[in-house]
Amino acid sequence: MNKIIKVVFIVLVSTLTCVAQEQKKCEPPSLFDYDDDHTLMVEAKDLLTKPKCYDGVFVRTIGFYYRGFEISRLFCLDCDRSAAAWVDTGSFYAAMKQCTSAVNLKKLQSSDEVTYGVVVLGILKTNLGFDEQPKEIGSKRLSETRGGYGHMGAYDSEFSPICFEQVEVFSNSYMSQSAEGSKTRKRMSEWYKKAYEKL
After folding, report:
1. What is the pLDDT of residues 171-186, one digit of tens each?
2. Which of 41, 73, 78, 88 is the most buried (most CB within 10 A)?
3. Residue 134's Cα: distance from chain center in Å?
């Protein structure tokens, strides 16, 4: 009888744990999610589409960073436009300057609009709850209460870089729909695949 009670208890605890994780839409990280320096490794796709799961967590991520006039955004190639975070390079600037190589810092200090491929250490903050999904960034957001990060409070999340490990320059502007844009996108995809395999 005691064995039956133990089995029922284990099944009940497992079920409740799964339900709780499903409600939060988060899975606890496994041993394989950490890199050799014991830092949680998260692809930008997961970081940006499930921001509440990583709110306030120190992570290492691989993705794309676009910087231009009144724009500073972390995004992923295969996410829709709403899955993006404002990039705030000011919060940990002293650490970033010490940790990031001189070559990468020079790339990041370009005065032009630039799209970069990045492997970066940092911390994400978000105003999204577990039951919310990012909304399209645009003028409509200005009348909404969510958001609060970045230019005119247009972003639901903010990523604060601490160290740029890799910086690859792809374009002096954001990806366009032109033929040149599709070539750039292909190069970005190829870089991502190779860089991810090396992580």
Report:
1. 766 665 555 678 888 8
2. 73
3. 13
Separation between Cα atoms, residue 76 and residue 92, nearest integer Å: 23
Please return the burial class of 19, using the count of CB atoms within 10 Å of its CB with bins 0-12, 13-18 and 19+: exposed
pLDDT tens per residue across span 42-80: 999 999 999 999 999 999 999 999 998 889 999 999 888
The pTM of the whole model exceeds 0.90: no
Tell whether the torsion through CA atoms of 43, 44, 45 and 50 is positive or negative. Answer: positive
SS3 readout for the chain: CHHHHHHHHHHHHHHHHHHHHHHHCCCCCCHHHECCCCCEEEEHHHHHHCHHHHECCEEEEEEEEEEECCEEEEECCCCCCCCEEEECCCCCHHHHHHHCCHHHHHHHCCCCCEEEEEEEEEEEEECCCCCCCCCCCCHHHHHCCCCCECHHHCECEEEEEEEEEEEEEEECCCCCCCHHHHHHHHHHHHHHHHHHHHC
Strand 71-75 and strand 157-171: the pairing is: unpaired
